[in-house]
Amino acid sequence: MRDRPKDSAGHGRARPEVLHTLEAVQVLSDSMDRMHNTLKGPMEMNPSDVAALRMLVIRERQGQPVTPQDIACHLQISTASATVLVDRLVDAGHARRRPHPRDRRSRVVELTDLARRSFHHHFGARLAAMREVIDARDDEELRLIAEFLTALADSMVAPLPDPTTAPPQEDS
């Protein structure tokens, strides 16, 4: 493998394609934020409520139960704030509390049919447009894209080393 010039942080200089891809990821992230923000008004929710509903949709598809503590951790809010948030979602008819399927001392938060219908009503056209873009790719491209996005998503939430515990090393 050919050595690439190093940048000021000691990393190899990024290829133009890498920089272009990182920029595209930023644009995608911004577009997703703007798309999700369109739910706040019509559904009369704040950003944390929308983020919690999005989390519930994703975890439901993955078959993972969600506790109020999971919501607190995911949104980086206190458990008391998560309880208030869940209360709002339940009061609005978008979520319900149920006994945990494996731990009867705990409760899980689930989407309601109203929440699913509201998501479909507000996101249906956007999801159809996204599906058109996706359908234009062949199966091999989609497999690679899905692998890439999954690895990228994992890298975004993976624990990082604590920069305060190990000082930077000098290059020899």
Based on the model shown, name its key terms.
mainly alpha, Arc Repressor Mutant, subunit A, 6 helices
For the largest beta-sheet, the strand count, sense and barrel status come to: 2 strands, antiparallel
Question: Could you give the distance between the termini?
Answer: 21 Å
Strand order of the largest sheet: 1-2
Proportion of beta-strand residues: 5-15%
Calculate the mean pLDDT score and round it.
Answer: 86
Domain count: the total is 1
Provide the helix percentage.
55-70%
Q: Compute the gyration radius: what is it?
A: 21 Å
Helix vs. strand class: mainly alpha
Q: Judging by the overall fold, what is the CATH architecture?
A: Orthogonal Bundle
Give the full name of the CATH homologous superfamily: Winged helix-like DNA-binding domain superfamily/Winged helix DNA-binding domain
Query: What ranges have pLDDT less than 50 throughout 5 or more consecutive residues?
Result: none
H/E series: HHHHEEHH
The name CATH uses for the topology is: Arc Repressor Mutant, subunit A
| Text of the CATH class | Mainly Alpha
Please state the overall shape, judged from the principal axes of the Cα atoms: globular
Quickly count the helices.
6
Q: Would you count the extended β strands for me?
A: 2
Domain HTH marR-type: 15-154
Protein name: MarR family transcriptional regulator
InterPro entries: HTH_MarR-typ, MarR/SlyA-like, WH-like_DNA-bd_sf, WH_DNA-bd_sf
Pfam families: MarR_2
